[in-house]
Amino acid sequence: MADLSRIGVSLDSDLLHRFDQFIAEKGYENRSEAFRDLIRDRLVGTAVVASKAPVVGTVTLVYDHHTRLLPEKLADLQHQYHQVVISTLHAHLDHNTCLEVVLLRGRSRDVQRLADTLISTKGVRHGRLVLSSPHTVSARLPSPR
Ligand code: NI
């Protein structure tokens, strides 16, 4: 870690107590490491909001493969957006249920549009997009435009 700076942070006792409970549950060894992770997480969140920002992400989908034409629709969408789809992992969870994880890379706007379309496709029981920045967050982030 380059140039470590120490800062003092004032928190009300109740918030600090809740923070300590949170970091204990998450298994952090100390408050500093937890603070750093929270700050990085917020900075990534800010960086990926800009519509042209380069992002990476995963979309997790759970669906019933007996739903008429659903697997075909999901595959068609991924072909339509082939520039942003890196790879897809598919697992057959049981007789009916599929789990699909789609790796995405591209501009924030395109990645989010595809994720929204996949998740909102009729028959998808649960879907979630997780976005991240492809750039290291300890380095300076490009300011969102
Ligand atoms: Ni399947």
Structure description:
- With 145 residues, the chain is an alpha+beta fold.
- It has two domains: 35 residues; 81 residues, ACT-like. Chain A, domain 2 (Alpha-Beta Plaits, 2-Layer Sandwich), CATH 3.30.70.
- The protein contains four helices and four strands.
- It has a four-stranded antiparallel sheet, with helices on one face.
- The longest helix has 17 residues.
- The protein is elongated and about 55 Å long.
- The model has no long low-confidence stretch (mean pLDDT 89).
- The structure holds nickel (II) ion.
Query: What is the level 1 CATH name of the largest domain?
Result: Alpha Beta
Instruction: Give the count of helical stretches.
Output: 4
**Count of discrete structural domains:** 2
Strand arrangement in the largest pleated sheet: 2-3-1-4
The second-level CATH architecture of the largest domain is 2-Layer Sandwich
Order of helices and strands: HHEHEEHE
Uncertain stretches of 5 or more adjacent residues: none
The kinds of small molecule bound in this structure are:
nickel (II) ion
Please indicate the percent range of residues in DSSP E strands (runs of 2 or more).
25-35%
Global geometry: elongated
Fraction in helix: 25-40%
Classify the secondary structure makeup into a structural class. Answer: alpha+beta
Query: How far apart, in Å, are the first and last alpha carbons?
Result: 28 Å
Global mean pLDDT = 89
Give me the CATH fold name of the largest domain: Alpha-Beta Plaits
Count the strands? 4
What does the main sheet amount to?
A: 4 strands, antiparallel
- Radius of gyration of CA atoms, rounded to a whole number: 19 Å
In CATH terms, the superfamily of the largest domain is ACT-like. Chain A, domain 2
